[in-house]
Amino acid sequence: xxxxxxxxxxxxxxxxxxxxxxxxxxxxxxxxxxxxxxxxxxxxxxxxxxxxxxxxxxxxxxxxxxxxxxxxxxxxxxxxxxxxxxxxxxxxxxxxxxxxxxxxxxxxxxxxxxxxxxxxxxxxxxxxxxxxxxxxxxxxxxxxxxxxxxxxxxxxxxxxxxxxxxxxxxxxxxxxxxxxxxxxxxxxxxxxxxxxxxx
Length: 199
Hints:
The protein is of the alpha+beta class. It folds into two domains: 13-62, no CATH class; 73-192, Trafficking protein particle complex subunit 3 (Muramoyl-pentapeptide Carboxypeptidase, domain 2, 2-Layer Sandwich). It has helices at residues 15-27, 32-48, 53-68, 76-89, 91-110, 117-128, 155-171, and strands spanning 134-140, 143-149, 174-182, 185-192. The chain is elongated.
């Protein structure tokens, strides 16, 4: 069936969204009709493939955010191997490098103009840590608890990542008072420096 013989139907849309679509269509050099129908076709194809468009867009946004924050994609096994080699060559130097990386990463949030920097840091880090199926960083008053479990982490990588987390949390003003680290498992308890119960 040719496009000219396809019947048209009217639908209702929010005015602000429609105005924005008109701008986007104009910028792309196509009519609103063509642009909107392209969106509909994409939604139908995505549904046929079992994809959720919002999740696809969110995943792409996470990749862009990660790139903007200095992350790079790499082969997971190679990353673990390189971490093991660095740790064997100089344990303290490797731990310090990861601690310093945590400080650097968290500083972007502390010195920014965010209303809730720790929450933003937590949201991003949880989103970027794809290789840890269980990763939670919870704030409870002046205390922050970290729980991480990943069967894919090597023992060395677990210790290095724990050092990264300690560096980041110290930048937010939290000192580690209890720590349990073993292959694939990290448990940290931290208190804001100067808080009752800190050491």
